[in-house]
Amino acid sequence: MEYMYQLELKVRDYECDLQAIVNNANYQHYYEHTRHEFLSLHKISFADLHDQGVDFVVARVEMAFKTPLKSGDRFLSVLNLTQEGVKYTFNQKIYRLPDMKVCNVGKFDCVVLDHGKLCRNAALDAFVASLQP
């Protein structure tokens, strides 16, 4: 499958729990970092949006844990972005390297709040439309 963006990362010791695997909460950190890097690459800044009274926030999260990551593992965090109405959906996966074993599958529904009100955002709508084939 092709992805709009991919980022290689490495598991750090402190991200693991007593079972010597990555603590479940850290997968959300990996995914968030990937989304932020992707948007930053495209000159979309959460700070700039916030200064304008616009917040791009996660409204719903789904994650499925497949194969655990361990300290020192390298992995690839990938994403695709789609839009349906006011909802922007990041479909994301984490693959262990070098064997490309699926470790986690995530779906993140995000929305825009303009001064606290749910709405569409013309700039984000245009950005997502520009990504579609």
> So what's the CATH class?
Alpha Beta
Number of helices: 3
Shape: elongated
- Find the structural class using helix and strand composition: alpha+beta
Gap between N and C termini, in Å?
14 Å
What portion of the residues fall into strands of 2 or more residues? 35-45%
Oligomer: single chain
The CATH superfamily is known as Hotdog Thioesterase
Put the structure in a nutshell.
The chain is of the alpha+beta class and 133 residues long.
Helix and strand layout, with pairings?
Blueprint: E1 5-10, H1 24-41, H2 46-51, E2 54-65, E3 74-84, E4 87-97, E5 101-114, E6 117-119, H3 122-131
Antiparallel strand pairs: 1-3, 2-5, 3-4, 4-5, 5-6
Structure in words:
- The chain is an alpha+beta fold and 133 residues long.
- The chain has a single domain (5-131), classed as Thiol Ester Dehydrase, Chain A (Roll).
- The protein is built from 3 helices and 6 strands.
- It has helices at 24-41, 46-51, 122-131, and strands at residues 5-10, 54-65, 74-84, 87-97, 101-114, 117-119.
- Strands 1, 2, 3, 4, 5 and 6 form a 6-stranded antiparallel sheet that branches.
- A hairpin with a 2-residue loop joins β3 and β4.
- The longest helix has 18 residues, at 24-41.
- The protein starts with a strand and ends with a helix.
